[in-house]
Amino acid sequence: MANDVLYVGTYGPEDPTRATLVLAAAIAMKKRDKAVPVRVALLGQGTLLVDKGIAGGIKVAGARSAYSTILQMIEAALSKDVGVEIHC
Fold it and tell me: What confidence tier does 1 reach under pLDDT thresholds 50, 70, 90?
């Protein structure tokens, strides 16, 4: 298994579906193997996702998603249960 994992996200509010992919992948990887450090780097338009007002207004695509907004995904990723690091 990898020593650590870095996901890079460059999409923001202009493409909510793609913006959620990097967060979903990071959360899934961390849940798969808690020992592996998982980081997300947000670049370009992706940096807008750290604004709670913006992230709270972006709906997550997919009927089976456990999260209704990107803000909920970010909060879940940062929680102690998951432990993903997010940088921008």
Answer: low
